[in-house]
Amino acid sequence: MQVQIVEVGPRDGLQNESQMVPTEAKIRLIGLLAEAGLRRIEAGSFVHPRWIPQLADTADVFRQLPRNPDVTYSALVPNLRGLERARECGVTEVAVFMSASETHNRKNINKSISETFPVLREVVQEALTLGMRVRGYVSTVFGCPYEGAVPLDNSRRVTDELLKMGVYEVSIGDTIGVATPRQVQETFSVLVNDVTSERLAGHFHDTRGTGLANVAAALAEGIRTFDSSIGGLGGCPYAPGASGNISSEDLVYMLHGMGYETGVDLQKLIEAGSYIQRQLGRPLPSKVLAASLAQAETCAKNEAEGDTA
């Protein structure tokens, strides 16, 4: 069975970093991810640099990315101006976003959920007219930092509206990493019944250590597309110091062990994780990355001791 992985590290991961990663390093990272076999990579965001300065160079990144007909590089866009900037850079797929909770949506977009629909509808329709594909994100599906539990009907309504606008897929997000496997199964069983599993993806965070367990729960409900971040890049803005996105290395390791095919070369993926870890100068949360690098270091040490024996 095939599972698709949407790599969000270059966008969702790097936007949470306190330090600026050079444009050249971002391009190199994205190239390594493509070489590892990832075919869907979210490479940046056209949100105003005032709000996300870490991704202010997204236009430069897209203009310099090596074109690969097998790889789709997408970008997040908040409005028509962001869409226009994406079009100027040759972007062929964009993503729009909103929340399932009213308070989080107002904090993020400065509009109610109902007020956000016509704004996004205009963006989606224009993107489709330009020949772009459009993906949708729904945040705080499993919990909101301001409201706590979020009614499932909120997520059903937002998902339905996004699909009616013309997005081809909706990514269901555990923004603050509070979901548990039972909650994931209950939520996806309803959403799949509403819209079919082919139109849905899972976006889980490992803030409380349940990220991969939640992937397994979503798999049981027929979900076959998941977002993840190289090295586990990205944190939770509502829980300083906590981990955020599930790690691409950890996800691929688990999926392969469960008999799923991803088309991703795990060793090359680890090399990509090692590269961005060196660029950031600190250990990343990925457990598979840490274990692989520790094993390599041990082997190198044993070989060196054998040469001097």
From TrEMBL:
Keywords attached to this entry: Lyase, Metal-binding
Sequence ranges assigned to domain Pyruvate carboxyltransferase in this UniProt record: 3-270
Residue stretches in coiled coil: none
Molecular function terms from GO: hydroxymethylglutaryl-CoA lyase activity; metal ion binding
An example Gene Ontology biological process: ketone body biosynthetic process
Pfam families membership: HMGL-like
Gene3D superfamilies, per database record: Aldolase class I
Family named by the database record: Belongs to the HMG-CoA lyase family.
Entry-linked PANTHER family: HYDROXYMETHYLGLUTARYL-COA LYASE
Protein name: Hydroxymethylglutaryl-CoA lyase
Species the sequence originates in: Brevibacillus aydinogluensis
